[in-house]
Automatic annotation (TrEMBL), chain A:
Keyword Glycoprotein tagged: no
Keyword Oxidoreductase among record annotations: yes
Name this protein carries in UniProt: (2Fe-2S)-binding protein
A Pfam family reported for this protein in Swiss-Prot or TrEMBL: Fer2_4
Record key words, sorted: Oxidoreductase
GO molecular function, one term: oxidoreductase activity
TrEMBL record, chain B:
The protein's name in its UniProt record: FAD-binding oxidoreductase
One GO location term (cellular component): cytoplasm
Highest taxon of source: Bacteria
N-terminal signal peptide: none
Species whose genome carries this gene: Borborobacter arsenicus
A Pfam family annotated for this UniProt entry: DAO
Amino acid sequence: MFRLLEATGRPMTAIKVDGRTVQAEIGANLASVLLRAGFQPFRTTPVSGEPRMPYCMMGVCFECLATIDGITNCQTCLETVREGMVIERQLGASPIKPAGEGAP
Amino acid sequence: MPAVASSDYVVIGGGIVGAAVSYGLARAGEKVLLLDEGDIAFRAARGNFGNVWVQGKGGTSPAYADLTRRAANDWADFARELEERTGQDLHFRRPGAFYICFSSEELQRRAETMARIDKSATVASPFEVLDRPELAKRLPEIGQDVAGATFCPSDGTANPLHLLRALISGTILLGGRYLPRQAALGLRADGQGVAIDTQAGIVNAGKVVLAAGLGNEKLAPQLGMSAPVRPVRGQIMVTEKIRPFLHFGTNFIRQTLEGGCLFGESSEDAGMDDATTLPVLKETARRAITAFPLLRNARVVRAWGALRIMTRDGVPVYQQSRSCPGAFVLSVHSGVTLAPFHCGAIVEALRAGVLDAGTFEPFSPERFHVQAA
């Protein structure tokens, strides 16, 4: 459904999207890469369980959330592609990590 | 100025207190008009924590302890009726709440205060004093540095935004009118009733109820009443939605049904400044993480400040004007907890045209007069 209009010539890298390997340009907008990769839905909501996809693409609506490198609720429209990134779909509310885990 | 509206009852202030009174009046078949200010208003009803809170209240006033306990006991029926009428889910739960203490001295003082209040109150509200091991059995995520807690099964929580919306939509469903962006600029007794100046023109009221929060201070004296209130700022933050882990209320942390965790406990004199400040938010977050260490892994998504409507002793002020008997003032910081009272017994008193001394004398602002001491 979505395709790249023009190539930028930036170097490519392999990222993991819901278990699949996807080739993406380093520095590309992550939400746009996920849309092109057919990542659908991005998540289901904590309240109603409805499927959600990016809406505003500019950091306002919080619809494009996904888990990036184990961190939940990341706004994918504000992220750019980095080497080795792992993106997972989040279903409903995520459990909070125990006190001994997570960032130092 | 032209007369633009008239009603048997006009309630000034579209927060939870004013909306509860309006709803109660409309439900009783009265003709009611609710005047609300615009979005420049200091809206305590839209910034509060959402606790239906009993424990520790009424330390200086047994009447206030009883009022609070009765209202909390009435909350379930109140919520059911309002939900059935409006289709709004108020997210009311009453699992009880813990007041978390960070030292054994604090826990002991707290236990003594609770025992003292319990002795003077006539409506029962049991409580338990829990040391750390007992608390950890009930709240497995509790932190090592918590000394203990008092637990009171009377406490509950509700979604204050849903409550406000339900009360206003319920008022309208029952034939009441709601006029937003109509601040009351001035009031005067006019024959049998009250004339209210608004931006649009004069609104004529048979009876008027002042529920304008901090705005009461300027409005009440115009009709021979007094509302000695001051703003006490609270700062609250909310996290991303997390799978439920906290199934009880606490004095400063609660998890909503939707999963977001609210932290808030600050009390500051900041005048009419309702902003947030980093030192207060930082200290609130530090104490939240001390209470529940796993919260260090939760991300805060919003923070806000709001101004409580605080009387000198923290006890509500309910007063009827002597010079203008159709005028009443309600100044309350516990609009959520006392909502069943405001749409029930208060409404009956308004309709009877008198705040009977038995119920309302302890809540008269005359208690602040030095002669009364």
